[in-house]
Amino acid sequence: MSSASSMVDWDLAGRTARTLMSAGPSTTREEATGVVRDLHEAAAVAVDHVEQLTGLRAVAGGPVPEVVVVDRPGWVDANTRGMAALLDPLVEALTARQDSRPGPIATAIGSRATGVQAGGLLAFLSSRVLGQYEVFGSGGRLLLVAPNIVATERKLGVDPADFRLWVCLHEVTHQLQFTGVPWLQGHLEAEIARFVEATDLTADVLRERLQDVLRSVTDAVRGTDGDSEGLMALVRDPEQRAVLDRVTAVMSLVEGHAEYVMDGVGPDVVPSVVTLRKRFAQRRKGRGPLDRVLRRLLGLEQKMKQYAEGRVFVGGVIDLVGMEGFNRVWEGPENLPRIEELTAPERWVERVHGRPAIPA
User: Fold this and answer.
1) Single pTM value for the model
2) Under 8 Å between Cβ of 330 and 56
3) I need a labelling partner for 358 at 20 to 30 A (CA). Which of 41, 82, 205, 274 fits?
4) Per-residue pLDDT tens for 196-240?
5) Measured between alpha carbons, how far is residue 125 from residues 216, 260, 324 in Å?
6) Alpha-carbon distance 351 to 14, whole Å?
7) CA 269, CA 52: separation in Å to the nearest integer?
């Protein structure tokens, strides 16, 4: 998986994560089989509900996404492949610009150090992620992390059938966003390419900065660092920041849209949806100081902000122009929200619909 020029030894990252990750909840073989079956069925049922609520449909004749129920090691394997597919081309592009390249020994030492640090982050995340739709590197797969779903429903004390369907509604929404809006993935890939073009760092400097960020997580565990910039330390160029703003707006849109769907299906579909939302919101806050620090350093605090602002944007636009009016957001990149419109949905309505935003 890892090439000689890789910034991160992804094979080592995967092995490290497997060593450090916590064990999942105890289940009998029969219970585990039932969870896998239930999640596959919930994912299939969720498609109809999301289509009915949003109006999104997968493009006819397009690829049919695979639904895969995984354990924690399986999630780690998928994400090391995905991150390698995303980051390694960046490193190769940066290295190609250098007049002199580091020797193979220096590269190997640097990539192994970063691999160990990345493995520690993956181990931390492996017990928290419930599901994800893989956009890059896999041809589009919907992953559901069974042990984490079981652990969360037990901890929250909620109805397992309701919770499993509720989680699937979120992930299937992402699936339909990318299978129903075929230009969206290409748009994100183009933005990443622009990000690379704006990078004036050498691969070595970028690796050093990445190591600094990963090291700050270790410092946070020891309680010696509370002011790190986190992953934003990797982004210094103004043009890169502009690209990052555009990507953040897109990700806020897709996350907020999925949040809207989770709640929008209502109690007829998920009887305990109000209870689920209340208890799940508490889970996201992160109760322990270590959890809060790690969330900030890993960029998860920004992720929570994306959920909140994206949800405000989607709900605000639908209140003003209805679901059909909101769906103009999927017509082309020019209709995607700008970052300043996330908290002012009426500005998006005025720009895209060409008229003052008046509540429907």
Assistant:
1) 0.84
2) yes
3) 274
4) 777 766 666 766 767 776 666 656 554 554 445 555 556 667 887
5) 16, 24, 36
6) 45
7) 12
